[in-house]
User: Fold this.
Amino acid sequence: MVMHQQMATVMEQCVLEIRQIQQQARSSDNITRARWPMIVLRSPKGWTGPETVDGHKVEGFWRAHQVPLSGVKDNPQHLQQLEDWLHSYRPEELFDAEGQLMPELKALAPIGTRRMGANPHANGGLLRKSLRMPDFRDYAVDVALPGQQKAENTRPLGQLLRDIMKFNSSNFRVFGPDENTSNKLDAIYEVSKKLWLADYLPEDADGGELSIDGRVMEMLSEHTLEGWLEGYLLTGRHGFFSTYEAFVHVIDSMFNQHAKWLDISEDIPWRVPISSLNLLITSTVWRQDHNGFTHQDPGFLDVVVNKSPTVCRIYLPPDVNTLLSVADHCLRSTNDINVIVADKQNHFQFLDMDAAIKHCTKGIGIWSWASNDQGTEPDVVMVGCGDVPTQEALAAIGLLREYFTDLKIRFINVVDLYKLSPASEHPHGLSDYDFDSLFTKDKPIIFNFHGYPWLIHRLAYRRTNHKNLHVRGYKEKGNINTPLELAIRNEIDRFSLAIDVINRVPRLQVAGAHVKETLRDMQLECSQYAYMHGIDKPEVSDWTWSVPN
Assistant:
C-alpha cells in the first residue's frame, strides 16, 4: 500500500508539472525545449511473486523471467506456492462472493471517454479528418514524347507535399532522417521548417531551416522517426516518411509490428481506420554514384512481402507523373502500409499525366509505343519495374529492333508490384486470365527488376508461364560505379538484356550469334570507358528512346 501511495503522489506531481509547461508554452512567445518529467521506477524482477522455488532464488533474479512454478500439475509444493501467491493479493477484498468487482472499487474507474480504452486518442480513426488535397495534376511534368527528357522524380513530389502541409497545418507532418533536402523534397520548407527547440547557432540562419513550430521532423535516427510517425497516425493524423533505401532496414522490426497491428485491427469492428503509413524509399540502389556499395540494398521490399497482403502495398513508379499519381492515392488511403520506391536523381520521363493516371490505376500495363506485337503474339515479353530497370529495358528493345527488325517485342511496365501475385493471394493481384494475356502462356519473359530477382519468382511462381520467366535484378555486386557500370555488373543493363533475349528466342539462338558478339564488345567498351574516365560514355548518357526504322 505504501508503494501505491508513493506512486500516486509522484504521478500527481508529474501531471501538474506537465500542465504548467503546457500553460507556459501556450501563453508565451518565448518557447524553449521543455524538460518533461520522467518517472524512473526500479523494481525487482518478478516482484510479489515467490521469492524462491525449490531452493532457487526467483524474485529479483533471471529465473523470474521464466515460468516460476512449472510443476503445479504434479508437484503439490508448487501448487501450494501458487495458491499462497494468488491469495497474497487479497482477492476477498476486491471481489464479492459472485466474483464481481466490489461496487466501491468499480466506482473509482473513469467513465465515458475518460476511460483509457475509450479515449478517442487511443482509437485515432475517430479523430481522423481527411486531408485537404491539392490537385496532383497541377504538379505534372509535360511529356510530349516518351523517353526524351529527364527530370528529378521526387522534386515535384516535394512541391505537392508543400501544399498539402499548407492546406493541413494542424494534422500533417513530414518525417525524414536529415535527408529531405538531399531527397529533393526541400520545397516543404517554404511553408514549414524543421522542428527545433534546442540551442540555435549563428550559422543556422544560413539554410538551417529551423523553427520552434516546424512541422518537418528531421533527425538522423530512423527508428525514432518511425515511432513518432506511428504515434502520429495512431492518434488520428497524417504523415509522410522518406528515407534512403539502404537504411530503411533500421525500422524493419517496427514496420513488422505496425503491419501486424493493422492486420489484426481490421478484424475489430469498433476500431476505426487510421491514415496509412506512407514510406518513400529513395536514394536507391542504382544511383549510388558516390556512396557506393554500403548504400546499395533494395531488400526492404522482401521484408514487406512477408507481411499480410491485407495491409501491404508496394509501388515502383518509373517517372514524375506516375509518382505523383501514386502519392495522391497513398495519402488518401487508410489502414495500409504504402511503400513507394522512387529515386531522387534525374531520370527519363515516359508518360504524360493522363497516361500516368491510367497506368497507375491499372498498376501494370503494355506500353504500346514501346511494343511492336500489336495484333499478334510476341516473340518475347520485356518487362521493366523501377526507374533504371525500365530505362535499360527500353534501351535493350532499341538495340534488338535495330538488329532484328522482324522481332516482335511486347513491353510491360509494372508499377504495383503485387499485380504479379495471384488474385487469391493479394487484393491487387491479377487474375490468371489477365496475367496470361499480358505475359503469354509460353513465350520468354525478360523481367528487369529494381530489387533482388528472387522476389519476382516468389510472387509469380504459380503463374502458367513461370518456367519461361527470367528475372534480372540486384545481385550484391557494386562499388562506387557509374550508373551503367553498376547495371552491367548486375546484368540489368541493355546489353545483358538484349543477349538474354537472343538466348531465349529459339530462332535467334544460333542466328543471333554475331549480334551477341557485337553487344558484348559494346558492353566491354562501356565498362572500360567508365573505369578510365569515371563517367559513362556520352552515347549512353545522351541516349533517348527512339524506334529504329
Q: What stands out?
A: The chain has a mean pLDDT of 95.
